[in-house]
Write a structure and sequence with these properties.
The complex is a heterodimer of chains A (480) and B (480). By secondary structure, chain A is an alpha+beta fold. Helix content of chain A is 38%, strand content 19%. Chain B has 17 helices and 3 strands. In chain B, strands 1-2-3 form a 3-stranded antiparallel sheet. In chain B, α4 packs antiparallel against α14, α7 runs parallel beside α9 and α7 runs antiparallel to α15. The radius of gyration of chain B is 25 Å and the shape is globular. The chains are: A alpha+beta (480), B mainly alpha (480). At the A-B interface, α1, α2 and α7 of A face α1, α9, α12, α14 and α15 of B.
Amino acid sequence: MNRKKNKGKKKSPQIMIITAGFTLLFLSMIGYITYYSVTHKQELINNSYNGRQQMLLSQNRRGSIYSADGKILAQTVTNENGDDVREYPYGNLFSHAVGYATNGRMGVEAQANYYLINSNAPLSTKAALEASGDKYPGDDVYTTLDTELQQVASTALGVYRGAIVVTEPSTGRILAMVSKPDFDPGTVEANWDELRSDSQKGVLLNRVTQGLYPPGSTFKIVTALEYIRENPDTYQQYTYQCNGSISRGDDRIQCYHGSVHGQIGFTRSFAKSCNSSFANMGLTFDRSHFEETLDQLLFNQKLPLSMNYSQSRVDMNDTISDADMMQVSIGQGTTAMTPIHLNMITSAIANDGVLMKPYIVDHVENSAGSNVKSFNAAEYGNLMTEEEASILTGLMTDVVEEGTASRLKGLSYTAAGKTGSAEYGTVKGDSHAWFTGFAPAEDPEICVTIIIEGAGAGGDYAVPIAKRIFDAYFGVEAIY
Amino acid sequence: MELYVSEFSKYVITLLIALYTYESFAVFRKKQESDRNGIYTRQNILMFGLHFSCFIVICFETGDITYLFFYAFQQIVLYATVILFRMLYPKTNRLLVNNMCMLLTVGFVILTRLSLGKAIRQFIIVMISLVIALVIPFFVSHFRFLKEWKWIYAAVGIVALGIVLVLGQTTYGSKLSYTIAGLTFQPSEFVKIIFVFFVASALYKAAGFFEVFTTAVVAAAHVIILVCSKDLGSALIFFVVYVLMVVVASKNWLYLLAGVSGGSVAAYLAYRVFPHIQVRVQAFKDPWSVIDSTGYQITQSLFAITSGGWFGLGLFKGTPESIPFVEADFIFSAIAEELGLLFALCVILICVSSFVMFMNISMNLKDKFYQLTAFGLGVTYIFQVFLTIGGGCKFIPLTGVTLPFISYGGSSVLTTLIMFSITEGLSMIQEEEAEEEKRRRKRIRQKKKKQADRKKDRPVYEYEDLDFEEDGETFEQEEE
């Protein structure tokens, strides 16, 4: 009797379990705090409500920004009055890419702000500066930008408004990024009101990542991919009789400048950029399947980019009308995309279907030149299969060989690409000139995407700029 | 020189607290308090080393050597506490005394850094509280009638809280305190202890449905008064402590289920009825959207926690004062910023170590009243730690309670000191019980020996009796 009672009086299992429960709760909280602090450190220090930024700036001199070829793109110097001034030796050339760091921030100045305002200088350097009452040198940021390509691209775009982005498909490195109209980052503070008020020109907008344009015929890359996916065995047997236009009810799609392409197959429809033929293909699509393809190509989705960007949009679902379907198929209607997004799709085609995340900050060094942080090439994933990429490369090579990009034909390298003349606004005939493509077609090294606002046909205006960039990259003497 | 001191000291301070934390868990590997003396002595050395290093840094950073006098006073008081507890109560648990002094040390250091005036005030309150704390273990271990006062505890608790609700001063939307003779009291702090005594005294004899129901009514009265005073953190603490004490007293997990479901319904209703709860939840879900107003505190706290890195910015190198009420509700964030994430996590672990020791004492206590008391006090302590740290790092919604021993606030530090001293008293009772047990076992052994001696003369028939006494070798108790 006594014995039973004694057994029940052993250590309370309830207390043990509750103790274990609280201990687990605290361990998960410790895990959470650690994870949150490590992953949100940069984001939070860049928040304008965080006073620690000012504190760091009063301790450290903002670091310099370098190009891939070691040129200084931005640096902070002390002027004769003893004030720190941010200098941009290339003036307007890197306006959007490098950006500014007064009145808010943009470009690399924004993206790498955390590194630029922190100092990992050796302790001895810091001690010496501390003694002399000077600030510590902030860490230096090395970009992937190439000053020569940037210069060529900017000069080629000239006085036009538009955007050019040049990337390396196998790594995602951004070699050049031009957006016009541009500005001198060194004078942003002085001209702030003017830059802000000038809303119509949108000077401060980086058109490469934030400009949303109708993709026009460059979107036929996407339409062609969907057609191949839906007709994997028979797409090469496709034929269409082009009379210059196609109608569904009251809605009519015309070929560019009323061209009549006659009897054409799949490859030729793409090379000649036949609107009627592509609208015809679009009408046969399984719309929910097309929606999946568009999702996979990152339309209406977040892009794997660590800079500010706009999301591309396209309306696609089961209930969309035939008229809208025809518009989507040729990249018109409500469809809008950014040049960087088109560049990413093109890069994936050039890189066997695999998209590498585009990046502009390569690595960070302290003032003594030792590495603080490296950003390596990172794979995002497959946008399409290797076979699909190879078929699209073939189509894009034909665009150069016998289609709308023939100005790239017969050079020392073989280019592949797609042109576009995207109509915008209400006036018939006003169009943005597009080109997106890569070279060499057989083993792509660079990928170029160009848009020139309101210039006209892509083949006439954008392709020659692509040629100058390719020429510069492959070291071909330009003959104009 | 100053730079080398501040950089080097970061690592020293982190190392010292890490070693201390290690020792505070190593304690549990040794079963006997007498085997732990080496650990306790090492802890004392580490503690004093840490205290000294921190004040050296403070002197260097402020350039004011007079801080060392303040340090000396603190050191004398803390050293005296360690020695006096040991001298007056040789049987008491030294881990709790050490942890208490360590956490007070951390509190003194960070408060001195935040505001010397508040630190001095806090120091004086701690000194007086320690004198009170020193006599408590004597009372607890000698006055056994504490068990019989359940209705007095209930009445005192409800009246004290009721007075605040009716007459209390409103601070930042919550009625928390009243002032007697120039001293401001926050009764909900002290009532926490009385409440634990109430529940323990009401349930230690029996915890059937009737007892649980009557205590639930009293507990509900406490919680409702606190919710009406808008002191949500305390209301939650009372609720959780009550439910868990009922589970332990009744050994029935169904009460936890009932508590959780009842609590969820009550929380939902409260959320619908009280706008200030909605504000808190909103600030928890997305503080960034209300960063200007209700999300300001929590976002500033997150800025602080994330900016310190593993080893912290160093004392006086951060901007913890940008968090409103940093010295009370957000002291943990200040610690994480200036003393580092590792240091802050060690502080959490020291709190957990204290809690585990509370539970250990509770489990080993044979008297159910004392067992429940130790358990209730331990849960009160650790749940408060959870609320304040979890709230400050956005792990849970903010409730606005203090971090025991570290936060600025007289009522808070006095209450926690009393809680620890009561548990010290309980640990003495437990040691006495254990010694009594030892004596009893010795008696049994002697008796058995006698029997065995007798057995030589008289054979087998007392064997049955012997079996029972062998069972008595394990942990068990003889009812008096």
